[in-house]
Amino acid sequence: MWTDLVNDVLVAARALAKRPGVAFTAIVILALGTAINAAVFAVVHAAIFSGFAHVERSDRIVRIGTTRGFVYYPDIDVWRARATSFEDIALARGVFHTFNDGSSTLQTFFTTEVTANTFRLLHVRPLFGRDFVSADEQPGAEPVVILRYELCDRVFGASRDVVGRIVRIDGQSARIIGVMPRGFTFPSTQELWMPMVPTSAALQRVTGYAQFAYARLQEGVAVQRARDEMDAIGHALVNELPRTHGGMMPVVQAFDDWFVGSNTRALYEMVWAAAAFVLLVICANLANLMMDGAVIRSHEIAVRLALGAPYWRITRQFVIEALMLSMAGTLLGWPLGLTALVVYQNAGAANPGVLNVVMDASVLALVWPVALAAGVLGSVGAAIYSVRLNINYALTRRTVADAPAQKLPSDVFIAAQVTLAVVLLMTAGVLIRSYHTLATVNVGANTLNVLTMSLYAAPERYVSADARQAFYAEVAERLNGLPGVTSVGFGTAAPAEFTPQVNYAVEGEDPIDPTSPLSVAEFVVSPTYFRTLRVAIIAGRAFDETDQAATDSVAIVNQRFASRTWPAETAIGKHIRVTEPGKDLGPWLTVVGVVANVVQNDRTRRTFDPIVYLPYAQHPQPNMFAFVRTGNEPERSLGAVRQQLYNIDPDLPVPALGTLDARFARTYVVERQSSVVVLCFAAVTLLIAALGLYAAVSRSVNSRVKEIGIRRAIGATTADIAAAISIRVAYVVVIGWVSGTLLSVALLRTARTLTIGISMPEPVVVLAMTAVLVMSALVGGGIPVARATRVDPATALRCD
Q1: Mean pLDDT, to the nearest integer, of 1-18?
Q2: CB 491 within 8 Å of CB 445
Q3: Residue 779 lies in a domain
Q4: Does 547 share its domain with 480?
């Protein structure tokens, strides 16, 4: 048996060596399929299966938020005491801090302030140095910091001597006590971690202190059980503390839901499916190439069958050939996959700061079986041909390539390739169209030529409300004085992003019910906010300099709030009261204006929340977004803006300084890159399908040279010859187009239920896809058709 197998391997090697062009083509397309699937699986595995690097059982980590969008610091102790579903619960909040290692360079880094148990909850220890302890989070303790490995390597050369070193955080001295392992970051892309030292206001529930808490589930506890338990605790707190917890319920998110999100997960799965489609096309093309080789060797196969060789022995021969090709393709595909992964990461889609994207043994464990399966599937064409071979016909004819019984398998494989190419083209077209819709939809504000940044007048340094107002007034004055700047405004969030919900009541209606209050998005803005972002004033007026802390309290509402609250009346002059949890009832606010709807709290940018705008002078906040409108090309003003802010406060963190349009674009990086990746897959698939079509039509033309010569000799025109050959191209392409379109519609209908922003194919997408397909068919099938029309009758008739 082993002797026969070795002999088959040697025969297979000789057979492939006789057709180096075909073997090379097969190896290249298999390498391409291997590279695509290896790179995509590495990303998908990191996003869906792996989780955070170095974190033990990431899938057991849940995130706990609340319906109010923040977590009270003391609630963590309540949850720990009452919840039995978790091993432990930690609190974390992301802030920006300036960092200076002792040189003259000041950098702004995203930092997470965490409770001391956070890393122990994750089962991760610092690579060197120590973890946080309870003493570190006590008021008055020495400020300490733990560094991300990559930051330590970049600034200090990853030296262990960094432990104990003093750096400056926001101008204050802090001691480095540890460095985390290479690749670790949590809960997003952090450079630093510091212990959470709560303020007295946070301890008294006067203010929410963090957006999320994180917990590790007990072994054997399902997420739903934890949700049910936290719901019960939430209802109990509403009854016990109605003043601070009215309408505030815990929200437990499973790891999959918050690590990448259900929408992003669906996009990753779509890309993975697209990569699988490319591999199927490659298998079909390999099957066609193998069948082409079988056609050329039809006389040899017929002789072996006539001498008594069993069909399984012939089939095994082709399987071995295909497996040899797939193994060679995999060896070539692995470095190509590594290159593709680097390109993908550099494009920003894989977010390497969070995802643990590596080409490791888990990827190899998938790639090798897939490659072997591709080889087995690739031998199907030759096996089908051998079984269907007419031995008598093969022994008496030079070739049987165009015998009616032998054309069908080839046409099926080509039609399958066209079908899958259409599916990928249609999917790419829909993704690009959907992304374009998300990226260009009107959010209610004009974002062109606007710079934005997040500023934080830390209460530790800007203690009073007057000090914070003076800070932002100076920022506005200095930035307005820059050349090209036309307006500067401030708001507590950028358009389309999160803004907190507060309770509200309308004068003359029932008072606020603590158990089921009405809620509205609250947004604090400067008087120039609406002018800077060009938000239309529908009625009344905008805020102005007369709206101060000592004057009557006022508010502006958006159209959505006005039409919902006073559908048959004007909103101007009406009175509302907003109440933040944990605070006393606010004063009655007089509505002085109604503005156009601006998208907030909706990543899809499709809906407008009711919003109440409050003037900054009456509600000063430490954290505000600055919006700087310029005459044109706002990027030119970046350096000047940064310098002015440095002149105001050298230790001021200035994160996210850039254009508002660029900020919006970063929101949809996965959607954008997924569209481009699927489009690239579609292009590869079309190329492979065109090559397969070219090979099939060329084989048909070569087998019909004598027939073409006879037709030309008896008067057939060039058009007649072209039509006779082209009809095969046409029906294969039409079948593939119809089946691919129907399959695309079915798959996209399913995708709409999983992914936001996905729409059904529009006529423009279908037409564009059809045009590309026709062009590919003309290239793939047109070249051999053109060659057929140039057949010389005399030469053809002398052909044996």
Answers
A1: 69
A2: no
A3: no
A4: yes
Record the tokens describing residue 482, joined without a space.
């820059």
Residue 140 contacts by C-beta under 8 Å, 6 or more apart in sequence?
none
- Three-state SS for 800? coil
Q: What is the mean pLDDT of the chain?
A: 77
Of 582 and 279, which is predicted with more confidence? 279
Q: Which DSSP symbol is given to 210?
A: B
**160 and 81, same domain (yes or no):** yes
**One domain for residues 118 and 151:** yes
Report whether 61 contacts 122 (CB < 8 A).
yes
Is-contact 146 132, C-beta < 8 A? Answer: yes
Q: 376: pLDDT confidence band, cut at 50, 70 and 90?
A: confident
Query: Is the torsion defined by CA of 611, 612, 618, 619 positive or negative?
Result: negative
Greater confidence (395 vs 364) lies with: 364
Q: Which domain holds residue 74?
A: 68-248
Tell me 251's DSSP state: E
Separation between Cα atoms, residue 596 and residue 612, nearest integer Å: 12
Nearest to 287 by CA among 367, 418, 375: 375
Among 182-186, 270-274, 353-357, the minimum mean pLDDT is found in 353-357
Element (H or E) spanning 525, and its range?
A: strand 519-525
pLDDT in tens, 413-430: 677 777 777 777 777 777
pLDDT in tens, 577-599: 887 655 666 788 999 999 998 88
* 238 & 281 share domain: no
Backbone angles phi and psi of 721, in degrees to 5 = -65, -45
CA proximity to 78, closest of 245, 193, 199, 243: 245
**C-alpha to C-alpha distance for 459 and 622, rounded to whole angstroms:** 7
Place of tokens 């090379």: 24
Same domain, 42 and 88: no
456-464: which pairs have CB atoms within 8 A and are 24 or more residues apart? 456/95, 456/96, 456/622, 456/623, 456/652, 456/653, 457/622, 457/623, 457/624, 458/170, 458/622, 459/199, 459/622, 461/170, 462/622
Return the amino acid letter for 323.
L
